[in-house]
Every structure is written in structure tokens, then in C-alpha cells.
Specification:
CATH architecture of the largest domain: 2-Layer Sandwich
Strand order of the largest sheet: 10-11-9-12-15-14-13
Family: Belongs to the aspartate-semialdehyde dehydrogenase family.
Distance between the termini: 34 Å
Radius of gyration: 20 Å
Structural class: alpha/beta
Keywords: Amino-acid biosynthesis, Diaminopimelate biosynthesis, Lysine biosynthesis, Methionine biosynthesis, NADP, Oxidoreductase, Threonine biosynthesis
EC number: 1.2.1.11
GO molecular function: aspartate-semialdehyde dehydrogenase activity; NAD binding; NADP binding; protein dimerization activity
Strand content: 15-25%
Domain Semialdehyde dehydrogenase NAD-binding: 37-153
């Protein structure tokens, strides 16, 4: 992505409504001799660009920064924090020499090929793909949920830490505090997933399709096989023999690993909706112990990284637009499940920014844990 394209995508990825406060990069310089050497793999992509914004927003310290991408992007120049960086070829010899932390967001194939190479050079790889999530030797981490999984990971000792799937992160940010209190026995999740989950090209196509349909033209369908604008359809992940698609099974398997509970029952239905950025999820929970909705609100109100938007009188609840470009996951529609007895069930509605907390922010938070 050239600098001009990066600006266009940055504008597209950050709707004006509901934006978080951003400090201009000129207010600080993160270069610090006592900071780690950081590499960003997939630096020209949507999540790679968000890595850079999160690094600025959180004052993440680094003594050097290396931007890596595919051969076709090598040589491009990107401005960041009053400096200009040349994107380097990921496959070039020495790409990971001297790197302490490598933030990967370039797809599973790239991670499987180059992640071990970075580890061999002593880097801790924080990988945003699905390549290593279910490896029993690789921690699968949401810092607010299971930081203990990072206990044996140290800077200077090469390792891989996996970022969970965006839908799993958004769901478990809300479900875990309740699970700790009353133990979830069964969770039913329906997701409403934005174009951002399929990358910047999908977002551009949704924008183009909307214009085309409103003008009475046939929609361009290059990213998805069917019209996306003014439509919803089953998530485009491959469908497996059991009838679930891969996105749905990620939520099932990842929840069990993150909670360290192989017996928790999870079922999911994942849907694409014509929203530009941020996912929404309807979550039904069945508990081992009684949990009333007022107690649930208090638990969620105290949970880190969670904001409650639950105004019944005004019919105001979480929306993707309001959480776009925000760090926190918003929770609302908190109510007792009338189909379950003895206050053993709750329904909640959750919205979170897929690119932010669902990807880049979570990865940078993992990197922050390495500095403690």
C-alpha cells in the first residue's frame, strides 16, 4: 500500500461517529533505548496500519521499528511518528535479525512460513492469524481474560503467542467476567460481522456496491460471491462436514482453550452484515449457578475493557458505529433468559471494533505484557 493509499484506507477505517480520542504523533517520540526492537509483518495492510496507530495511542516504547511486507510492497515508504520508514521484504535475509517482538498480521500461510524463522532469531511472535491458535504449545491470549497463559513467555526467548479470532475476543471480553462468577455451561452466539473482517478490499467493495446499487447498477462482486450491500449472508468461511463454517468452529475451539474448559458447550452462527467496521454479537449464556441481571451489570461495569450501554427507557444499546475506533467492547440488552429457570440464563448483546480490540489492540496489549 503506497502512502496515499494508506491515507485513504485510514480514512475509511475510522468513521467520524464514535471515534476515540487520538493524539497527534508529534506529541511524543516512542523511540527509547530501553524499549524493545519491534517488527510489524503485514505493515501495509489494514491491521498492520492499525498496529501503528495503537502503538502511538498507547505510548508503546520501542528502540527501533521495522516494517515488513511482501516483495511487491518492499521499497514503499510510510511515515510514522515524524519519521519515514522503508518497507522491507519479509523474505529478505536478516529480516528478523535483532528483533525482540514481531507483530504478525499477514495471513496464516505467511505466519507458518516466517513465524518460526523469527522465533529462531529470538523474537517473540504475536500472531494475528489462525495458524498457531490451536497448537497446545502456543498460548492463546486475551490479556484481560487469561494473562496467566503468558507466564512462561519472556523477551529474548523466542516464542509464539497467538491472538484469538476477532469474534472470540469480542465475545469473551463480555462473557468471561460472568463466567468467573457463575460458570458458563453453554453459550449460544450469533454474530453480525462487518466488512472489516475481510480486509480493506472488502470494505472498499461494500462502499462501491452501495453506490452501484443505489444507482441501479449491477454490484461488483470480486471479494464475495454475492451482493453485500443491503444484504446479509452466512459468513464466507468454508463450510465443514458438520455444517458449521470455520469461523463458527474457531469460536467453539478457542473458547474452550482460553477458558481451559474442554466441557463448556459452545455453538455459533456467524453472519456477514453490510457494516463497514466493528462486529456485533448476540450471546445467550446458561450458568451453573444463578446470576440475576442486576448482579451481571455490576460485574460487567467493573470489568476492564468493557463499557455498558444499556438504556432500556431510551432503547439505546451497543451499535457497531459507536464502538468503531474504540478500545472497549460495549455490552447491553442485559436481561434474564425467560426460557431458563432459577436465573440460570442471561442474554447480552456485544459490539466491538474488529480491527482494534479484535486484532491490533489485543496484540499490542500482549506485547505490553512482555515488558512487565
Amino acid at each position: 500500500m503506497q502512502a496515499a493509499a494508506a491515507v485513504r484506507h485510514a480514512h475509511l477505517l475510522a468513521p467520524s461517529a464514535g471515534r476515540s480520542r487520538r493524539r497527534p504523533s508529534t506529541v511524543r517520540m516512542a523511540l527509547r533505548e530501553d524499549g524493545p526492537s519491534v517488527a510489524i509483518v503485514g505493515a501495509t495492510g489494514a491491521v498492520g496500519q492499525e498496529f501503528l496507530r495503537v502503538i502511538t495511542d498507547r505510548d508503546f516504547p520501542y528502540r527501533s521499528l521495522r516494517l515488513l511486507a511482501s516483495e511487491r510492497s518492499a521499497g514503499k515508504r510510510l511515515a510514522f511518528e515524524d519519521r519515514e520508514y522503508t518497507v522491507q521484504d519479509l523474505a529478505a535475509p536478516g529480516a528478523f535479525d535483532g528483533v525482540d517482538i514481531a507483530l504478525f498480521s499477514a495471513g496464516g500461510g505467511v505466519s507458518r512460513k516466517f513465524g518460526p524463522a523469527a522465533v529462531a532469531r529470538g523474537a517473540v511472535v504475536v500472531d494475528n492469524s489462525s495458524a498457531f491458535r490451536m497448537d497446545p504449545e502456543v498460548p492463546l491470549v486475551i490479556p484481560e481474560v487469561n494473562p496467566e497463559a503468558m507466564a512462561n513467555v519472556r523477551l529474548g526467548q523466542g516464542a509464539i503467542v497467538a491472538n484469538p479470532n476477532c469474534s472470540t475476543i469480542i465475545c469473551l471480553m463480555a462473557a468471561t467476567p460472568l463466567h468467573r462468577h457463575a460458570k458458563v455451561l453453554r453459550m449460544v452466539v450469533s454474530t453480525y460481522q462487518a466488512a472489516s473482517g475481510a480486509g480493506a478490499a472488502a470494505m472498499e467493495e461494500l462502499k462501491l456496491q452501495t453506490k452501484e446499487v443505489l444507482e441501479g447498477k449491477a454490484p461488483t462482486c470480486n471479494i464475495f460471491k454475492q451482493q453485500y450491500a443491503f444484504n446479509i449472508f452466512s459468513h464466507n468461511a468454508p463450510v465443514l462436514e458438520n455444517g458449521y463454517n470455520e469461523e463458527e468452529m474457531k469460536m467453539v475451539k478457542e473458547t474452550r482453550k482460553i477458558w481451559n474448559d474442554k466441557d463448556v458447550k459452545v455453538t455459533a452462527t456467524c453472519i456477514r452484515v453490510p457494516v463497514m467496521r466493528a462486529h456485533a454479537e448476540s450471546v445467550n449464556l446458561q450458568f451453573e449457578k444463578a446470576l440475576d441481571e442486576d448482579t451481571a451489570r455490576e460485574i460487567l461495569r467493573a470489568a476492564p475493557g468493557v463499557t455498558i450501554v444499556d438504556d432500556r427507557a431510551a432503547n439505546r444499546f451497543p451499535t457497531p458505529l459507536e464502538v468503531s475506533d474504540k478500545d472497549d467492547v460495549a455490552v447491553g440488552r442485559i436481561r434474564q433468559d425467560l426460557s431458563q429457570d432459577d436465573n440460570r440464563g442471561l442474554d447480552i448483546f456485544v459490539c466491538g471494533d474488529q480491527i482494534r480490540k479484535g486484532a491490533a489492540l489485543n496484540a499490542v496489549q500482549i506485547a505490553e505484557m512482555l515488558l512487565k
